[in-house]
Amino acid sequence: MKTTNSAKVAPVARRTRAQSFGAQLGRYAFRLLSGFAPRTAGRRAADAFSFTRGYGLSVSDRTPLGAKTMSIHGNADIDRAYYWEGGTTRALLVHGWGTDSSSMLGFVKPMQTLGFSVAAFDAPAHGLAPGKHTTMAQFTRATGAVLDAIEGAQVVIAHSLGSIAAISALAERSRPASLRCIVLIAPTCTLTGVLERWASRDMALPPPVVERIYAELLARNGVPVSHWDIKARGPSLEVPVLVVHDPADRMVPYCEAQSAVASLPDATLWPATGAGHVRILSDARVRERVHEFVMRHASDIEERVR
Fold this sequence. Notes:
By secondary structure, the chain is α/β, with parallel strands linked by helices. It has helices at residues 17-36, 38-49, 108-113, 136-149, 162-171, 191-202, 207-221, 230-233, 254-263, 284-297, 301-305, and strands at 68-71, 80-84, 89-94, 116-120, 155-159, 181-185, 241-245, 267-271.
């Protein structure tokens, strides 16, 4: 039985007519398969949830303008990152699920004007990184590997599901005194919420299949889905956090941002009305707001890291 169409609908992705048709076929296949092989259905559904190429983006092997390629060692899933030289302080950009480092390039110049060197990378199974499926554990380890390679960051800017990876990677490290602020753009607060919305809204999967997805993801990540939660992992990061989100975001609901802000010790929520979920990264208002926030919290950073 073919179930490959179901794997073309990523958990956070723009919906096209072809993807909607693929989802319909996937729902039918999963329901049929779950009747006589629920474990297989669960594995296939977990593969679909872990799919990263849902946007159908073309991938360029050209180094981004102005950047140099730096090697990342000790990580099995990524071997490179991009680095824009600036000052002695560093900013890390973390893209969302299904996109790649190119989606964050609009923040390179604003950070350089503030005196930062800037790093970005393609997460496992994204962009130039091989594969088409990954896990939050792999995403988080890769984010941590880049943090280690640049010897920490003073500012971290993350988008969508990349927010969970960024917060998790930072929380797994003893906070360096140089970390000054974090920006989360259209963040997903919990992986559980992402899975539940995808399983019910996008795929309409029967409960037995959803239960098997949870079990399969536990086996793949080594921790339960509930582990990937900004509310649980973020409070230890006692730095200012700016959360930017469109109240009408159709991919990730605004309540995700509200939950993240309520759980973080020093967070501010700024509604980017009409910015959308992906377009928010190129919204001039958002870039200006991020620039102002980072400038306010990085005014004396150069002296602190010397």
